[in-house]
Every structure is written in C-alpha cells, then in structure tokens.
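Session log. Operator J.P. requested a structure for one protein chain; no other inputs attached. Running the standard single-chain path with token output.
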Amino acid sequence: MTQIRSIAGTLLLDVRKFAEAHLNRRDIRKAVIAVPSYFNIAQRQGIIDAARLAGLPEARLVNETTAAALAFAHDREGPKLVVVVDVSGGGGSVSVVKVDGGGVQVVRTCGKRLPGGDEFDIRMINYLWTAIREEHGKEVEDHRSMEILRSTWEKAKQKLSRIPHVEISTFLPAIDKELKHTIPRSLFEAECSDLFDSILHEISRTLKNAMGSLPEGSCVDHVVLIGGSSRIPHLRAEIDKLLPGKLHKALSPDEAVARGAALLAAGAVRVDKEVVGLETHVTYGDTTFLCKDHMQVEEWHQPPVKPKEYFARYAMTQNRSPVEGQK
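Structure written below.
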C-alpha cells in the first residue's frame, strides 16, 4: 500500500508541476481529485496521503460520477434528476443525483465496482486465446505475443463501436505467422452478455433504491454516460431501452469528470450532499458477513470521513437490535 501511495504521489506531483508551469505559479497547494465511487475509506485516505506527498495538503475528493453530474449542472436551469453511469477502464459505478442551479445532491450511489473496460478486454482476449488454440494448436504464453494480442484487440474494440465487424490481422510470435480473425459486433456482445447484464441490473437497483427516498412521482430526466466503454453501442442501446429517450449526449464521456472537478475547484458549482457506498466485512465467531450501507456526507465533510459509531448485525437474519442509552 505504501508503494502504491508513493507512485500516486509521484504522479500527482508531476500534475502539480505541470499546472504550476502552465499557470506560471509556484504556490499550488489545493486540488480537487476525482476518484471512483466504489473506492472505500482506506483507498480514499490513500489518495489524500498521496496528495500530501505531492505537496497538495488541501486536496478535496469527489466521486467521479458526482464530478460528471457537476459538469452537467453547470449553467443549467431548473431541478433535474440525473442518472450518471460510469463505465471506465478500471471499473464502473452508478449514481443518482439531483441537479438544481449549479448544485448537486447525490441521492444514491452504487457501493460496489461494476464491470469496466478491463473486463471486456479480458473476456475477448480469452476468446482469442481459445480461437488460436483451436485453429493453430498452440498456446499464447510468451509476454510479447500477449501484449500484441492485447494491443490488437484494443484497437479492434474501438473500431467495433463504429462498424459492425472488424478484421484482426497481425503477426503473432506464438504461432510464428500472421493471425487473421474476423470479430463481428454480435460475437462481442454475446461473449460479454453477462457483463452488460450486470451493469444494467445495477442501474435498475440503484435507481429503485433512490426512488424510495424521493418524492412520489419523481422521474429521471437525463442519463449521463462517462468512461470510454460507455461508447459501446450495445450498452448505450440497452440503457436507452431501460430509460427511453433519456440519454444525454452533449457531454464528452472522456472529459466530463475532469470538467466537473475543474468547475468544483473554481467554485462555479457546488456539492450539497455526497453519498459514499460502503461494503463492510464483519466477523462474528467463525463467520464473516458482508454488511452493505450508504453513508451520507454533508457539504462541509468531504470524504474520507470517519463515522463516530459502528453497528453490525450478529446474524444475517437479524433485523432489529435493542439499544440502551439516554435520549
């Protein structure tokens, strides 16, 4: 963990130096850093520590989905209910937010990591490995061939977002010849169907939970997609089926998070309420339970925060507990 923190600190230091050179300043000590919504308390604290190592003692964290909502909220009139779906390379998340007059209130956020671009890549690279084994009778084991295969697939994936099928053609040392393979978009969708289903299920679940805390009659006004893999046509089509006519296409999936973080740093928008998804493993006796909850963080308490009291169930069937104390 210390090594990861040091690497992150080095990266943030480079960013700080670049910003200082660009702005012709030498005194940047504050920053707004967007992190995945599924980051736990320890991961968030690690980012704060890395920022301090980089000379940014006043760093503020914001969820990536919240940052995207802030970019959407800028210069937008009237209250809106927005679902933000993040499908980035390292993983995805979902948040339901209320946008009004440049402010954002996070109603609900997904507390776990959803499939992202890496999962789609791994699934298709495994498919190509199997195809090579069946066609050529050889395993792809050397590092060079694996990197060539990964790089080739990533380029093919980008093309599949624009055309219905793609031709892979590259020399592969593992088989000592040129690899030629056709991948239709339909095959990609079939191989990754469970990943798509997982994302759609979490959108539905998070939205259902959010509606329970909203006034009756509330409905979604817009869906904002962020992250490179949100460009996958099948995913966009399925989300459009789930929430017809709600896709907002004006924001760039690659720039929305950075834009929102910059606006927050400039004070052009505000976060009225953030929600951090928590997954806590609680051990009782020889059994470990997974207790899921959501912690609301008001504007003046930025993540990471430490709860004052902890409560845990001693059995999965427990739905109430006696409490002793004074009012």
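Operator note: The longest helix spans residues 2-23.
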